[in-house]
Amino acid sequence: MSNAKISALLEKLELDVQGDEGNWRFELSGRLVMIITDESADRMRVIAPIVSSAELSEELLRRAMQSNFDSALDARYAIAKETLWSAFIHPLSSLSEHELLLGIGQVVNLVTTFGSSFSSGLLLFGGGDSQGIREQELLEALVNKGLAI
Asked: Which residues contact 26 (CB under 8 A, 6 or more apart)?
C-alpha cells in the first residue's frame, strides 16, 4: 500500500475527505476518522477520537483494556493527547486494500460500541473477560425487565 493507493481507495469510496496525502480526515457513520501515514517509516494508522481521557472512570478504562485482549480484534483503544482513541496500526507496505477497509470498520465500531459491548465487530477472540462480562450484563438487563427468573 502507498499514499497514492490510499487516496485512490478513498476517492472510490466517495467520502468527503479533507486533508492531503498522508493525512486524511473524513466522517463515517457520524464519526470522525483520520488516516495518517509515514511512508519512510512504513507505518500507518487509522484513528478516531472517542472521549476526553479525563472523563474516563476507572471501570470504563479497565473495560476498554479488557476488550483489547478479546473483542477489539485488530483495532485497539489507546490514550494520547488526553483523548481516548480507537486505533488500527499496521505496516504500510504490507497493508492490503481489504485490511485497510476492515481496519476502518473496526475503528468506527470500537467508537460506536464504547460503553456497551466494546467490540470492533461480530467476532470475539476467546480467552478474555468480555464474554462473561457481556453475558452478565445481558442477564441483568433481563432481570431488570422482569424477563428472567
From this structure: 10, 15, 16, 17, 18, 32, 33
